[in-house]
Amino acid sequence: MLERAITYSHTLLRHTVKTGDTVIDATVGKGNDTLFLAPLVGQTGHIHGFDVQEEAIAITKEKCLQAGVLEQVSLHHIGHEQAHTFLEPDCELGAVIYNLGYLPGSDKRITTMRESTLTSIDTLLPRLRVGGLMLLVVYSGHMQGKDEKEGVLDYVMTLDQNAYSVLQYGFINQKNNPPFLLAIEKRKHVQTS
After folding, report:
1. 8 A C-beta contact, residue 156 and residue 167
2. Could you tell me the pTM of the whole model?
């Protein structure tokens, strides 16, 4: 059975994230990815979660508290373009996951944006360990989403194929702009300037 984009992102995370990894939930939303990542990183790993909406941080914090994993999680009420500033200089990431768009059931005018998402991708991608994944679930059924989708696709298509493998996964015969997944795997260390 074919998996939806978000379900397939979890399948990939399950096969990639290791006990002790540091990972990033770049858009915590309602905390579902954070909770999914907690048992994967284990008690020796850590999750950094980011969101610009205080409501999203509060929901995620409560869910983590109830699940008994709050000690493994640092939640930051700030945009994901600042995520790199919360990492130790030598920290390598096992995974980064984004759910682009807006928080379901909230103000649809508050969305992820092309420029901040591209900044986040550009600063976090080099921090992946070899074999690590950056996953972007792209929702483009709204005005900002279309612009963001174009920017992200343009960016990932320029990545060096010797350093990164990029997969696009999604249904092409569904109406209403179904979400799709971009999965970027780091294949080797990349020299940064």
Report:
1. no
2. 0.92
